[in-house]
Write a structure and sequence with these properties.
The protein is 51% helix and 13% strand. It is α/β, with parallel strands linked by helices and 449 residues long. The chain is globular, with a radius of gyration of 22 Å. 47% of the residues are buried.
Length: 449
């Protein structure tokens, strides 16, 4: 494949390459290894991708095992972390009915477990009780004693192991505990419990995780936050709206209405086409478009969808509308300029108006292209996101908001610097319309005029 780091279409080979190399700062990747593997991948060929990333993972895992036999724990730990990430990358495009998918996931998880067992202190491997199942997770300690804790989850296609690279490692460095879990419809939970498909009422599994957290003496109940990545940008605010024990929430990125998002991705005539017609067109498109092909296979596995047209009904209950009054804890919404450029205008307006309707303390942070962290979930610049997240959490948990100040904070939550970018990608008219909402403020101080 030809590596193009400016091609950041989610689900494409270049984005997944960027995703794989992004974990270098926490020991999960070496750029040279990843470039060498990607160079052997044939464009759009899932089989080639799986083969080359598996080959790399096998080699690095063998190096880890050899280092461990020699008593070189540091070298073994680093290599096991990289092998885990490379097996994860290989598994990503394996169809759910392909035996390699489960085998690669197991190998990725095994390598990660070996790596974290060599850390000091070791990362604790969890099985959190939930209904008739167990949710896989990890507890990353930020040190001794009661400490603030961040519950972290991924989204539609992530793994608990990579959430460690996204935020768990950074939390521990900053003296925070991090409790990572995978819920219904997420990779680890599905592999362990195939019937545990995605569900809209994520407050149910999150409440089970909070129950578990409250039973641990080292967790400060008054400083318990929740972050959700990608689809977790819907799941986390949804859960926080129903779970009062969550004291702060981060949505990366905020997703207000998944049904609208799905519909907006298709031309208007197809949205109202008969089911059989839509399915036929979808099947034709999937032959030429690997992103569509991957998306349908993953939906069959994670959501129980059998036919493409079922997306329209399946996503219907995944909406945050109606929960504006329920969400009481402070909310941080993270977005990237790439996402702003790609979003449908209607969805942009809906997202801003939803933020306007919220009654909680709220803040928006946009990562620009200039920052190098503009892609979905800041792949390529996750350390920048970590800084923003923990700065906001520290400020939120230390803030005492006077009654006289509360209204101002509620009214001014989106940086005015966002308006020129809205105009750039969506035109002056929508920028003017949104500016009329009393939401935008100048980051250098004061409300936008």
């Amino acid at each position: 494949m030809k590596i193009d780091l400016l091609d950041k279409e989610v689900g494409g080979f270049n984005y997944e390459f960027l995703r794989a190399i992004s974990y270098g700062a926490s020991g999960g990747a070496e750029l040279g290894e990843c470039v060498a593997a990607a160079a052997r991948v044939h464009e759009g060929d899932f089989g080639s991708w799986i083969q080359e990333w598996t080959r790399l993972a096998d080699r690095v895992a063998q190096e880890a095992e050899a280092a461990l036999k020699k008593g070189k724990q540091t070298e073994a730990r680093h290599a096991f972390l990289r092998a885990s990430n490379y097996y994860r990358a290989a598994e990503f495009y394996a169809p759910h009915i392909d035996p390699r998918q489960n085998a690669l996931w197991l190998r990725s998880r095994e390598c990660f477990h070996l790596a974290v067992s060599l850390m000091s202190p070791p990362v604790e491997i969890l099985e959190i009780p939930f209904e008739d199942a167990r949710l896989p997770g990890y507890f990353v300690s930020g040190g001794e004693g009661r400490r603030p804790t961040l519950i972290a989850m991924g989204g539609y296609d992530s793994s608990g192991e990579e959430v460690f690279h996204w935020i768990g490692h950074a939390a521990a460095e900053r003296g925070w505990h991090c409790l990572i879990f995978e819920g219904p419809g997420q990779r680890g939970a599905l592999h362990l419990n195939p019937s545990l498909i995605l569900r809209p009422d994520y407050e149910i599994p999150v409440s089970a995780v909070v129950d578990y957290a409250f039973a641990r003496p080292e967790i400060d109940h008054e400083r318990l936050a929740l972050i959700g990545y990608s689809l977790g940008g819907y799941l986390a605010p949804r859960a926080a709206a129903f779970e009062p024990r969550i004291k702060a929430c981060i949505a990366n990125s905020l997703v207000v209405d998944l049904d609208e998002a799905w519909r907006a991705s298709w031309p208007a005539p197809l949205r109202t086409a008969p089911d059989a017609v839509f399915d036929t067109i979808f099947a034709t498109l999937s032959l030429a478009n690997p992103h569509i092909r991957w998306g349908m296979d993953h939906a069959r596995w994670s959501m129980g969808v059998k036919h493409p047209h079922e997306f329209f009904s399946t996503w219907k209950p995944y909406t945050l509308w109606g929960l504006e009054q329920r969400l009481q804890c402070p909310l941080l919404c993270l977005f990237g300029e790439d996402e702003l450029a790609a979003v449908n205008q209607k969805l942009l307006e809906e997202t801003v108006r939803y933020i306007d309707a919220l009654k909680c303390l709220k803040e928006v942070h946009l990562f620009t292209c200039e920052s190098g962290a503009a892609s979905h979930c800041q792949m390529g610049g996750i350390s920048q996101a970590q800084t923003v997240i923990f700065d906001w959490l520290e400020e939120t948990f230390s803030r005492e908001v006077p009654a006289s100040e509360e209204g101002t904070l509620l009214a001014t939550s989106i940086p005015a610097e966002l308006l020129p970018l809205i105009e750039k990608y969506h035109g002056k008219e929508i920028a003017r319309d949104l500016q009329k909402l009393d939401l935008f403020y100048n980051q250098r101080g004061g409300a936008d005029e």
